[in-house]
Design brief:
CATH topology: Peptide Deformylase
Distance between the termini: 21 Å
Number of strands: 9
Shape: globular
Number of domains: 1
Oligomer: single chain
Largest sheet: 5 strands, antiparallel
Strand order of the largest sheet: 3-4-5-8-9
Number of helices: 3
Structural class: alpha+beta
CATH architecture: Alpha-Beta Complex
Length: 207
């Protein structure tokens, strides 16, 4: 049975990490995605669901997984998503479960082309438009340590890399914050070690 996960709130440093790529596609990953979708469904305000998407770092699991639950579209789980191309630009109001009580106008691409893997590791590609595209861009940002408030007053830009040096350069050019730490994706990397500053995330991540 799916369970409600605790939402990490700003300024928790886990929200500023570049996340690990998903490399193991097992039942634990599927359960995490199901719990994330259930968490969105159960987050209500005045009997109205207030979430339309969630990134894994928002539930203390810094891996490249997002779930999308935008009204009018099938629920979707995306592993290792990459926005390969964006076209058009439009301002729209955004909010975030990790920044409760806030909202702001953010410029996003109106059309995007996305590559990702499904929960079985199968490569997929899709095009999204308008609100659906906005939700995906917002959630993919979470995997790179970017909050929507970082983009206020800026034109939309693509952020495709999880390489630290390139990410720093991209961030400076775009005027975005630079993640302080990179999360690795294999045993032996920093976040798997005993001195890991976020030991509570281990049980949520495929081992």
């Amino acid at each position: 049975m799916s369970k409600i996960l605790a939402i990490v709130k700003h300024p928790d440093p886990v929200l500023r990490l570049i996340c690990a790529r998903v490399t193991v596609f097992d039942q634990k990953l599927k359960d995490l995605a199901a719990d994330m979708l259930y968490t969105i469904d159960q987050n209500e305000e005045n009997a109205r669901r207030i979430g339309v998407g969630l990134g894994a770092p928002q539930v203390n699991a810094p891996i490249c997984l997002v779930v999308i639950a935008a009204p009018g579209f099938p629920e979707l789980a995306m592993c290792n998503p990459s926005i390969e191309r964006g076209k058009g630009s439009k301002l729209g109001n955004e909010a975030c479960l990790s920044l409760p009580g806030q909202h702001a106008d953010v410029a996003r691409f109106t059309d995007i082309w996305v590559s990702y893997q499904d929960l079985n590791g199968k490569p997929c590609r899709m095009k999204a438009r308008d609100f659906h595209a906005r939700v995906i861009q917002h959630e993919v940002d979470h995997l790179r340590g970017i909050e929507y408030t970082d983009r206020v007053g800026k034109e939309p830009v693509l952020n495709l890399t999880t390489d630290k040096s390139t990410a720093d350069k991209e961030g400076r050019i775009a005027g975005l914050p630079i993640p302080a730490q990179i999360i690795g994706d294999k045993p032996g990397d920093r976040w798997w070690r005993d001195e890991d500053p976020f030991p509570r995330v281990r049980n949520a991540v495929p081992a």
